[in-house]
Amino acid sequence: MHRDRRVAGALLIMSILSGGIGFSACVQTPAEDAVAPPSRKGAVTSGSDTCVNDTWTETSLVGAPSHRAGHSAVWTGTEMIVWGGGGSGPFYNTGGRYDPTSDAWVPTSTNGAPDARAVHVAVWTGTEMIVWGGLANGSTYLATGGRYNPVTNTWLPTSLKNAPDARVQHTAVWTGTEMIVWGGRAYYTYMNTGARYNPDSDTWTPTNVDGAPTPRTQHTAIWTGTEMIVWGGGYEFPLNAGGGYDPAAENTGGRYDPATDTWVATGTDGAPHLGRRRKPRPSLFRRPLRPSYGLLDDHEPIRPPEPQSSVVG
């Protein structure tokens, strides 16, 4: 067991799937005598009275949102807010606020809530949850969103003016004043565009494409305090570099400075890579989203885009 671990506090994990439940985990520096009791598989306990080391506690099912996948979750400082997603039937514009202290759920209002969707993005601003983009009913890509205030249990729509093109599998970060949305795709159109959303003024400002990383989806993005860094992702088939569909163009990403609206490429020396060039092959990036779940399915045959697909926003 690792004695030098310094993670303390509670880790809240929510996965509402068909027949599934959520758990909260308490992770602390293990005690010298920590042992795993046979009655609880994977659990490690110590003498702590307030938080048992490396153990799981089931979250309440009373008032919990219905089973779903492709939803979003944010942490407010006191509650986790789960919203949207899809199950075995329609997509949802419902959600719930979970308080781990009281182990209780409170439903989020649907009055004024955005259209039901999955595989969208969500950020916490400090006072509001902002959700944006995603897929509705398996065939409609969205360029709409909403702002949810948990104190008043109310929704406000995000502006449509200058909003990014509708998309899924994009990323979003919160800078302290703005949400930056970037990348993603709508069917076979992959994007290296994005925009900054200011909730105070309810306005969008497009991000510069000069020097931006190549179009990609399922990449990662973080906020450093001054820059957004995006890296990896894929186009047509998986890449670890995000340099398009050619696996030879790997180990790339970009740093975006919203103050100057400029991009700087990330270095490639020492960056992870795929190795030697491989023969292109079909992959999950070419598979349309399944209407029932809004998730990529590795087992479905590749299909052309459905003619009834549309873009909203």
Overall mean pLDDT: 77
Shape: globular
List the total number of helices: 0
Order of helices and strands: EEEEEEEEEEEEEEEEEEEEEEEEEE
Strand content: 25-35%
Low-confidence segments, given as residue ranges, are: 1-10, 13-21, 28-48, 237-250, 275-310
Descriptive keywords:
0% helix, 313 residues, single chain, mainly beta
Structure description:
The protein has 313 residues and is mainly beta. The protein has a domain at 1-59. It has no helices and 26 strands. It has strands at residues 10-13, 23-26, 55-58, 72-75, 80-83, 95-99, 104-107, 121-124, 129-132, 135-136, 140-142, 145-149, 154-157, 171-174, 179-182, 185-186, 189-190, 194-198, 203-206, 220-223, 228-231, 233-235, 237-239, 253-257, 262-265, 310-312. The chain has a four-stranded antiparallel beta sheet with strand order 4-5-6-7, with no helix packed on it. Strands 8-9-12-13 form a four-stranded antiparallel beta sheet, with no helix packed on it. It has a four-stranded antiparallel beta sheet with strand order 14-15-18-19, with no helix packed on it. Strand 14 and strand 15 form a beta hairpin. The termini are far apart. Residues 1-10, 13-21, 28-48, 237-250 and 275-310 have low confidence and may be disordered.
Produce the secondary structure layout.
Blueprint: E1 10-13, E2 23-26, E3 55-58, E4 72-75, E5 80-83, E6 95-99, E7 104-107, E8 121-124, E9 129-132, E10 135-136, E11 140-142, E12 145-149, E13 154-157, E14 171-174, E15 179-182, E16 185-186, E17 189-190, E18 194-198, E19 203-206, E20 220-223, E21 228-231, E22 233-235, E23 237-239, E24 253-257, E25 262-265, E26 310-312
Parallel strand pairs: 11-26
Antiparallel strand pairs: 1-2, 2-3, 4-5, 5-6, 6-7, 8-9, 9-12, 10-11, 12-13, 14-15, 15-18, 16-17, 18-19, 20-21, 21-24, 22-23, 24-25
